[in-house]
Amino acid sequence: MSDDLPEEFDLVVIGTGFAESCIAAGASRIGKTVLHIDTNEYYGDVWSSFSLDAFNNLLDQSNSTLRNGSYTWHEPAEESPSWTREKLLEKSRRFSLDLSPRVAYSAGELVNLLIKSNICRYAEFRALDHVCMLYNNELVSVPCSRSDVFNTKTLTIVEKRLLMKFLTACNDYGEDKCNEDSLAFRGRTFYEYLQAQRVTDKIATCVMQAIAMCTPSSSFEEGMQRTQRFLGSLGRYGNTPFLFPMYGCGELPQCFCRLCAVYGGIYCLKRSVDDITVAPDLNELLLSSSGKTLRAKHVVCAPGHVRGHGELRAHISRGLFIASSPLGSEELNKGGGGVNLLRLLADDGQREAFLLQLSHFSGTCPEGLYIFHLTTAAKSEDPAADLAAFTEQLFQTNAPQILYSAYFSIATPTNTNATTAMPIYWTAPPAYELDYEAAIANAREIFGKLYEDAEFLPRAPDPEEIVVDGEDPSALNEHSLPEDLRAQLHDLEQAAQQMEIAE
């Protein structure tokens, strides 16, 4: 660690995962001095993305929060002989392989936070092309918009009218005219409500599996809320309610790190904290790192980076597959395929997994290849066994040409309330969820404890809004600014061009 590094900070954040990066950016934005360090040589921790070579190396290593890793090379099919192991490794840097892939609701917490804070200018997204479901062992696209409903060939005319009527009723839920349903189905399941609407089995599957994303035991209220969240995100940026970060989900922690750095946050990768003690006055913490002692008013730490957070156990089971052909019909993969989402069910609907199919249009793999991300809640320390019921549904029926497969687990502390002598704020590992709501809630909660009266990630100004006291805004130009503000303006101008919604 550099000798000229300041010795005292308002906040030291250990780990550059999503929640930690949100907190660091929030603190730096309100004027706190922030040191953000990570034992890894890359940003993102278990929220990061990797080239194919780096991903294999990661699975070969022993890691506290990433465990049970393995990967297998498969012989290319006769119709795609060019995709050999050597060819894939030659294009290693064209891959961006996520550890914690997920999507964002277009009107969800992540998008709202990015827009509110103006961090959206650092990121680029693509609208998902299809939300899919398995029906009678066939992969079909779920109609999302009104035009989809009336143009789809998977539903009859009667089913189309029933689906539109049902979705309209769900969209109006909570208004006075729906109070009768609210009372009649209180304490009952959402599936019972579906049955009462006399919808067909295909519509019930469509709603339960892909729109509400419920289980048979989900309550009526939960099902309505989930359906409304789906409907409320339609039509904002594309034909489906979901967005995916271009070049992989590992871009998102880096977006928040950029904002933190713009407002003065200091970053040190490949640095560990050897020990943390309480200062004699009890108002500061002393951190020992690379022979240097740092003072901090507060410390935020990700699991596995500092002792004191209890043992770790498998929390999420992950599968990652590279294939030379996509899942489903040509209709689902026009123009070389896009970004498709599929929710899978097993054990009579009590267990679920999310599958995300990515093509080269997402910036995560070379053209002609496809990435399948499969994620479920862990039942054991064997991710392949946890995912077996879902891989069987996917690959025996649709039979894509798999070239590479990998499995691993993401771990969580067994004692999330572990206490130590130091007042360290521990962040949570990635939750099993489709989007980012739990991670953002975790960051908001910790930030609120640190700075009770401060706004979490207030809007950052655009470059043209930065005005020096006493200057005429109409005469503002880059050369009239002091050197430090000129550098900040340069950073913001470069970042402002990066946020576009990919069609």
Q: What does it look like?
A:
- The protein has helices at residues 18-29, 52-60, 85-90, 109-117, 146-151, 157-171, 179-184, 190-196, 201-211, 220-232, 251-262, 383-397, 437-450, 483-496; strands spanning 8-14, 34-38, 49-50, 66-73, 97-98, 104-105, 125-127, 130-135, 138-141, 242-245, 266-269, 275-278, 285-289, 292-301, 312-323, 340-346, 351-358, 370-377, 402-413, 424-426, 501-502.
- The chain is of the alpha/beta class.
- The strands form 4 sheets. Strands 4-19-15-18-17-16-8-9 form an 8-stranded mixed β-sheet, with helices on both faces. Strands 1, 2, 11, 12, 13, 14 and 20 form a 7-stranded mixed β-sheet that branches. A 4-stranded mixed β-sheet has the order 6-10-7-21, covered by helices on one side.
- A hairpin with a 6-residue loop joins strand 12 (275-278) and strand 13 (285-289).
- Helix 1 (18-29) runs parallel beside helix 11, helix 1 (18-29) crosses helix 13 (437-450) and helix 8 crosses helix 10 (220-232).
- The longest helix is centred in the N-terminal third of the chain and has 15 residues, at 157-171.
- 43% of the residues are buried.
Mean of residue pLDDT values: 86
Low-confidence stretches: 475-481, 495-503
Q: Which structural class do the helices and strands define?
A: alpha/beta
Fraction in helix: 25-40%
Portion in strands: 15-25%
At the third CATH level, what is the topology name of the domain at 52-95 and 312-413?
A: Guanine Nucleotide Dissociation Inhibitor, domain 2
Mind telling me the C-alpha Rg? 24 Å
